[in-house]
Amino acid sequence: MNTEAIVSIKNAMGGRLEIVRQTFPAHNGKPTRRISFVAGLHGDELAGLYLCHRLIRALRELQDTRPEVFLGQINIYPAANPAGIHSSNRLWPYYGLDMNRVIGQENGHTVGTRAASLLYKDILNHSEYAVDIHASNLHLLELPQIRVIEEFAVDLLPLASEANADLVWVHPMAGLFESTLGYNLNQEKIPTLVIETGICQRIHAHLIDPLFEGMMHYLLHLGILDANYLSPEKVRPPRVLYPKQVMQATAKNSGLFVGSVQPGETVCRGQRLGQVLDVVEGEVLEDVNAPAAGLLFTLREHPLVHSGALLARIALDPES
Ligand SMILES: [Zn+2]
Fold first, then answer.
1. Measured in angstroms, how far is the CA atom of residue 41 from the centroid of ligand 1?
2. What is the structure's pLDDT at 134?
3. What are the φ and ψ backbone dihedral angles of 50, each rounded to 5 degrees?
4. Which residues form the Succinylglutamate desuccinylase/Aspartoacylase catalytic domain (predicted)?
5. What class has domain 2-240?
6. What topology is assigned to 243-316 in CATH?
7. Among 90, 80, 126, 119, which Cα is nearest to 103's?
């Protein structure tokens, strides 16, 4: 494994902020294909850091014991927003900069924008494929899923099916995606899977384990690791979702949401998902029921809600 700091910025107190690329080169020096894994672009989304840890650990062991299986090159950027990660902040602190909203843009010369630009160029120069790993925001817990913008669906769906995610969610383009890493890499013909799993500031190992198996399988599928020497990992086909196949439940009242189900459960129409409570008066303000039958794949984790807050998302059963 070769370690390179692709961004190294001296901070005011004398230490350095670095974005590190770990590279596992091809055994014969001529990679068939190159892939990059990126995590921590949002500094409070720690699930991807753990997934990168799992990958680095497994690949190091493989390199020590079976170096001949590395037909391609694997790059891992395990902590793409070091300033944000140090303060558990989604944004690059001080500037309040979202690194995943400035990619491919001319957005000035702050430290954060320069770091984002250098990271993007490094990935462009070292990848034929990429995986960008995110977690949900502070409010929602998500089952492992891959988000695909409609215009890239033809190319990405066959690849996304090899990642062992529970869901692949195909959604329309929106303006805010134009400056994301995933959109820009896909526009540059570097097929990029954008993973969303768990919730920020937490690690749920049971939501990462299947993705780890999926990423190892993906490396075999792409011929980056030699499938002749390693038995392919088994992956489940994901449930592919289009916008009309997603129903959501929202709060009608402000209060404290207490859920009574878990993401990953199959729910019936009308089944209770939780309640919104009035803390001061000791009343139940509402029972929150499933609007349709299907797979519960998003659930409100942060209990404080206001009227209109998203509480749950359900992937509809085909017959619904
Ligand atoms: Zn994110």
1. 7
2. 98
3. -70, -40
4. 32-221
5. alpha beta
6. OB fold (Dihydrolipoamide Acetyltransferase, E2P) (2.40.50)
7. 119
